[in-house]
From TrEMBL:
InterPro entries: Arsenical_pump_ArsB (IPR000802), Cit_transptr-like_dom (IPR004680). Residues 27-456 form the Citrate transporter-like domain. One of its GO terms (cellular component) is plasma membrane. One of its GO terms (molecular function) is arsenite transmembrane transporter activity. Its main location: membrane. It comes from the Eukaryota. Belongs to the CitM (TC 2.A.11) transporter family. The chain crosses the membrane at residues 58-79, 180-203, 316-348, 360-378, 404-426, 446-470, 490-508. Keywords: Cell membrane, Membrane, Transmembrane, Transmembrane helix, Transport. It is found in: Cell membrane. This is Citrate transporter-like domain-containing protein. It is a multi-pass membrane protein. It comes from Kalanchoe fedtschenkoi (Lavender scallops). PANTHER family: TRANSPORTER ARSB-RELATED.
Length: 509
């Protein structure tokens, strides 16, 4: 693509630069308006600067991607209401066998959840669970938070619904859900295992010390339980119970002795009046007892009915979600499948859907709209094509050195410009370059881009939204606050990202 006129090139580059700054640094001091407003500002500037026309701006918005993103978010909201994520959180501590076992569980659960329910959703709902479990076992939360964020990112690479950049790749490339899963799943499975091993090795001393402390505390806890059970067993407490029973018996007897003279002084009329009052109150007491028994029975029946309705509704939510996944594997249109599943859940809920729909991140949808327009305008300046023409001869897809250079370019751009804009800028160019050499490599090039751009999110704390979610959730936790610093994440992120990316590239099919 030829370079645009100088004025259009400069103005388009300025608009894209503003979008990039606000997307990467949403709280920048001179314009702290956030990512969504920055995205819409970049899109508006592209139109105002006449880099693209209004019609071209509307045409740049990719509705299938927005529909797929909206549908998956609604399904995730209903899954959260159906306690799916509570069950996943319970798996973390169920019959846990120490710090290493817990860390491996965090890696596995977050990877599977990231593939099925997106990496961002996984980190939002599981961070608090991880903090609670580590606090209960008196473990340092740092390696477990790293395991959660990094494994969720790696796991999300396996499916088109795992993260936003995969949604873009699946829609633009036309790769089916099944082919996407089969192509990246081996890399994902091995990548999660390798990532877990890296964390175990890097934090082996902390995990080993934690396991020794946990074993000692468990032994102490058992001995304390033995002592307490011996001190407060029914056999040793029987004499105290007998004293209490004697006290309870002696009090009525004393009252009866003191009231004996009064009983002797009562007249026959008083006795008959007392008997008649007792007789009149007896039916009323029996009626009250019967009514209370009926109320208890009705309340227990109502609770039983509500419990069954709740169980039936949760089963329907799980079945609809399973049906959505099966339909996606069968090759049906991904956007309309997700939207249909979302609407099915709305209908099955049989109540006003506004509270659930309000939980959808509409700011994210608007961010995507602005980003589509901004990136399309920047493409029309010709600058991305010129940069790719410079890089392409050194990043041929049919050579090992070319793949390494291409992977490094994607890693750097994904951390500098964010992964979704990187995919929008490079996706079609990388696929076309691979197809020009060998048409069979076009699908593999798209999967290559999906794998590298997703794993690149683990490089630094700013590499993906999932990392920032874990960091903020941990810092703002009311009872288990913890700060995950940029440098501590980078110390783990650089070796993990490079090793996992390299191993995964060899397994992509």
């Amino acid at each position: 693509m030829a370079m645009a006129p100088a004025v259009k090139l400069v103005l388009g580059s300025v608009a894209f630069a503003i979008f990039w700054v606000l997307a990467v640094f949403p709280a920048v001091p001179f314009l702290p308006v956030g990512r969504t407003a920055g995205s819409l500002l970049g899109a508006t500037l592209m139109v105002l600067f006449r880099v693209i026309t209004p019609d071209e701006a509307f045409a740049a918005v990719d509705l299938p991607i927005l529909g797929l993103l909206f549908g998956t978010m609604v399904v995730s909201v209903y899954l959260e209401r159906a306690d799916m994520f509570k069950h996943l959180g319970a798996l973390l501590s169920w019959k846990s066998r120490g710090a290493r076992d817990l860390l491996c569980r965090v890696c596995l659960v977050s990877a599977v959840s990231g593939a099925l329910f997106t990496n961002d959703t996984t980190c939002v709902v599981l961070t608090e669970f991880v903090l609670k479990v580590t606090r209960q076992h008196e473990l340092a939360p740092h390696p477990f938070l790293l395991a959660l964020a990094s494994s969720a990112n790696i796991g999300s690479s396996a499916t088109p619904i795992g993260n936003p950049q995969n949604l873009v790749i699946a829609v633009q490339s036309g790769v089916s859900f099944g082919d996407f899963l089969l192509g990246i799943f081996p890399s994902m499975a091995v990548g999660v295992a390798v990532n877990a091993v890296i964390i175990l090795v890097m934090y082996r001393k902390a995990l080993s010390a934690a396991e020794k402390d946990e074993e000692a505390s468990q032994a102490e806890a058992v001995s304390d339980e033995d002592v307490s059970s011996h001190q407060f067993s029914p056999a040793t407490m029987s004499h105290l119970d007998s004293f209490r029973s004697e006290d309870q018996i002696s009090l009525p007897e004393a009252s009866q002795i003191s009231s004996a003279p009064a009983l002797r002084n009562r007249t026959p009329f008083a006795e008959s009046a007392s008997i008649s009052r007792d007789a009149s109150q007896a039916p009323r007491a029996s009626m009250d007892a019967a009514n209370s028994a009926d109320d208890d029975e009705r309340s227990s029946t109502s609770a039983y009915t509500k419990g069954w309705r709740r169980l039936l509704w949760k089963s329907c939510v799980y079945l609809v979600t399973l049906g959505m996944l099966v339909s996606l594997l069968a090759g049906l249109n991904m956007s309309w499948t997700a939207i249909a599943a979302a609407l099915a859940l709305v209908v099955l809920d049989f109540k006003d859907a506004r509270p659930c729909l309000e939980k959808v991140s509409y700011s994210l949808l608007l961010f995507f709209c602005g980003m589509f327009i901004t990136v399309d305008g920047f493409n029309k300046t010709g600058a991305p094509s010129a940069l790719w023409d410079f890089v392409e001869p050194y990043s041929q897809f049919n050579r090992a050195t070319g793949k390494i250079i291409l992977a490094l370019v994607i890693l750097v751009l994904s951390n500098v410009a964010s992964n979704v804009p990187t995919v929008l800028l490079l996706g079609a160019r990388v696929a076309a370059s691979a197809a020009a050499i060998s048409p069979a490599d076009e699908k593999k090039a798209w999967l290559f881009l999906a794998w590298v751009s997703t794993v690149a999110g683990n490089l630094s704390l700013l590499g993906s939204a999932a990392n920032l979610i874990v960091c903020e959730q941990a810092r703002r936790s009311e009872h288990f606050g913890y700060t995950l610093s940029f440098w501590r994440h980078l110390k783990f992120g650089v070796p993990s990202t490079l090793v996992v990316t390299a191993i995964g590239l060899a397994l992509i099919r």
